[in-house]
Every structure is written in C-alpha cells, then in structure tokens.
Design a protein that fits this description.
single chain; alpha/beta; Glutaredoxin; 2 domains; 5-stranded mixed β-sheet; two-stranded antiparallel ribbon; 7 strands
Amino acid sequence: MRKLIFFIPLISISVLIFMIGAVLIKQNNFNDKKTIKSVFIDKHFPKESIRLLNSSQIINLNKFKGSSFLVNFFSSWCEPCKLEAENLEKLSDKINIIGIAYKDKSDDISKFLNNFGNPYQTIGIDPNGEIAINWGVYGVPETFLINKNGKIVLRHAGPITNSVLSSEILPKIEEAVNE
C-alpha cells in the first residue's frame, strides 16, 4: 500500500503534463487555420488619411489603387513583428507594402527599422489605435492584401512565417496581381 501512495503524485504530475501537452497541441493546430475572416473581405479598404512617420504630411492609401499592395500593422514592441520582418523583406520585392505603426513612438519605430530592416514603401502612424479599429485590427502584426481595385482580398493576423508566406500570402498575391 505504501508503494502505491508513492506513485500517486507521480501519476498526477504525468496526467497534468499530458493535459497541458494536449491543450498546446490543440492550440497549435487551431493556429494553423490562420486566415481570420474579416467583414472587409471583398470590400474597399477604409478610407482615411494617415499621418506619415516623422512628418506632418498625410498619406491617403487611394494613391496606391491601380496595383495590389499590402498594409501591415506593426509595432516596435511586438515580438511577432520581429519574427516576420525577414519575410516582409522578401515580399517587398514582389509587392508594395505600406506599414502602419500601431501605438508606437517615432524613435522606437526608427530603432526597430534599423535593427530589422525596412520593407515598407511608406510608413504611417496610428498613435492611439483609431486607424486599426477602423480596419478591424485586434492585435499586431496584422496584414491585409488589397487588390488593384482597392478591395481587401486577404487578412492575416499574426506573423508572416515561412509556411504562411508560401501557402497563403504568395498565392493570394499572385491571384490579386493577375486579376
């Protein structure tokens, strides 16, 4: 009987570790189904003027209509944004990327771009998160693909990993460019 009592904590810990592992595996499988539906899919992107980084100038995204482009919400304090930086660099060779710095400071954004590269054709700032709200963004990084007609054709929440790049983003860019 004493030997059995010795094994009860060991069995309990094993069951707990198994349950935690099962939850993590299930969560990881859920994350593989990454395309989050947006009410903006197949609708025109929100029309608003965005102040440029380190400038008082305003940019209107309508100027990019006529060709496909990406809008990427990011922040210097965002760890997943650092993870996707290399893949955004790869994408910048294929398509224009407009960055929108979400709830960030100009100095921090500049340091981030110096450390991780600048794939953006232009960078707007969203210091209080109002622009992100209008786009339906709930966290960074979040990326939208806009077709040449100004319609959102893809929303990707989370970092653009190698697998997301090859299986999701590049095929949609190819499709949008060839419309």
